[in-house]
Design a protein that fits this description.
heterodimer, A: alpha+beta, Glutaredoxin, four-stranded mixed beta sheet, 5 helices, 41% helix, B: alpha+beta, Heat Shock Protein 90, six-stranded mixed beta sheet, 7 helices, 6 strands, 24% strand, globular
Amino acid sequence: MKSLEELKAIKAKMQGQVGIRENAEDGIRVVVGMATCGIAAGARPVLAAFADGVQSKGIKNVSVTQTGCIGLCQYEPIVEIYAPGKEKVTYIKVDAKMANEIVDKHLVRGTVVDEYTIGTSKLAE
Amino acid sequence: MRLFWYAMNEISLNVLDIAENSVRAQAKLIEIYVAINTSADTLTITVKDNGTGMDEATLAKVCDPFFTSRTTRGVGLGVSFFKAAAELTGGSFYIKSTLGVGTETSATFVLSSIDRMPLGNISETIFTLAVFNETGAEFLYEYEADGTKFSLDTREFKAVLETDTLNIPDVSAYVKEYLTENTEEVNEKIRGLVL
């Protein structure tokens, strides 16, 4: 069984990185819709994929969170990305594979994946 | 309706949906119990919260697929799905709620029923709730198979870390491993059973 002992080691490691949370507040926010509509459409593995991507690639200044129903159920899973000083980007009908691509292109390199956004996506038709 | 029915085709997705109701009901503590009992041929899921609760009139309506308390979308499907899915296997379902005290929802599925949905990725459901909900709600999760069990208590994790959140990359990765590995270990007990 995995125990809480390992958590203590993680805590010790975190103490060398004071200020992580504060930075995250001014950083990029990835928000995944997680109401009945989102869950039924497959939002859970999408959220997990973003969390995995951010952690495994060691991307700083990005926080992944969830929200309720955005009111556009037919486009779920919906992922909104908020960056300070930039317009919100809304990705629609996202799956885990697309999430990985968004992590690589948008979060790592700063390039919006236009084809998956609500404005230009063929998925919205 | 039909599309939704097929999409919610894992018990664990229903658990996520039910627990999100608890989060919306401003629960401070949400308890989730998953118990597999092969001799009784049951899989029981219980979600208990100390949220706002419901009055009798609301409670009576909650199993109606066309009832919702939310305003962004007209139809609430979660509880009625969960109930129907359990009853379809010959199992049972109850929901009890007291205004100002909280709500308890429980579904028992007949394990061997051909109509039973797969449990699905219950660890990912708990991971989603424990790490990413931002209301400060705490989660107590217990997973049991034929008497062997493990638990996850977000209050314990936060006490060790001295943080108010588990949504920190290294911590969230650990929570995921903790859930996955401990679930696998408990499942050793029921090896061969298709969940």
